[in-house]
Write a structure and sequence with these properties.
Order of helices and strands: EHEEEHH
Number of helices: 3
CATH superfamily: Ribosome hibernation promotion factor-like
Radius of gyration: 19 Å
Structural class: alpha+beta
Length: 121
């Protein structure tokens, strides 16, 4: 899976955080049976909330799949909690996508193997 990081202008991602995000998002590949996602974009930013004291981190992800784009958002006091929230939401959306009848039909077409002796004329 190709993962593209798009940090906010004021927010710099350290390499260890990028590795953490990459590990979390690569775990989603096991739910994508035989489907090659084009790319996943991760956006990370620092936002302030007037109702709560202090800063909040927000993260969002967009996963491009055949005929569908999945999006997930998360917020948290730390950047890691925001990313974990995004991963959990994305996991739910992928499971929902894979249980749709159209997804099952696509998987059957890809896994179809011609039987012996049958030829197209």
């Amino acid at each position: 899976m190709q993962i593209i990081f798009r940090p906010d202008k004021e927010f710099l991602l350290r390499p260890e955080l990028e590795d953490f995000f990459r590990q979390k998002m690569e775990k989603l590949e096991r739910f994508l049976q035989n489907i090659e996602p084009v790319k996943m974009e991760l956006k990370v930013s620092l936002s302030s909330d007037r109702l709560r004291k202090g800063s909040l981190f927000s993260a969002s992800a967009q996963l491009s799949l055949p005929r569908k784009n999945l999006r997930a958002k998360g917020e948290g006091r730390t950047i890691r909690t925001a990313m974990i929230e995004v991963r959990e939401e994305m996991e739910e959306q992928i499971k929902k996508y894979m249980t749709q009848p159209a997804a099952k039909k696509r998987l059957k077409k890809r896994n179809k193997v011609p039987m012996r002796g049958s030829r197209k004329k």
